[in-house]
Design goal:
By secondary structure, the chain is mainly beta. Helix content is about 15%, strand content about 45%. It contains two helices and seven strands, in the order αββββαβββ. A four-stranded antiparallel sheet has the order 1-2-3-4, with helices on one face. The N and C termini lie far apart (about 50 Å).
């Protein structure tokens, strides 16, 4: 028996062959659709995946043929972190900064130029 690749559980099984994305009568990129994820590629953007609620909304807005065009990154979650310092004189608000969590790799980074370094 063959092992099912780990990402199959995440993406589901393929439901289309790789196909061209046509805009104004010419092929401007490629896509491959899986049960829960669609992969998009264009020479200008590279290859990225879209899934879940973002995938549904992206398709509602026209997908790569719409105003948004091809994805420029995999999905990320951003959140604002409030930084406080508690001392004997009370709490001092040091500022805020934004963190970005890359949903594909699971890596977390601080958005550049926003607020203090934690």
């Amino acid at each position: 028996m063959h092992d099912i690749p780990r990402d199959t559980a995440k993406w589901g099984f393929p439901i289309t062959s790789e196909s061209g994305v046509r805009k104004n009568g010419r092929v401007v990129g490629r896509f491959s659709e899986f049960e829960t994820t669609t992969f998009y590629w264009s020479s200008g953007s590279g290859a990225f995946e879209v899934h879940g609620d973002i995938r549904r909304k992206y398709m509602d807005l026209g997908g790569p043929r719409g105003e948004l065009g091809f994805p420029l990154s995999d999905e990320k979650v951003t959140f604002v972190v409030d930084v406080w310092d508690s001392g004997p004189g009370g709490d001092d608000h040091l500022g805020k900064y934004t963190k970005v969590l890359d949903m594909t790799s699971g890596t977390e980074r601080r958005a550049p130029g926003l607020g203090p370094t934690p």
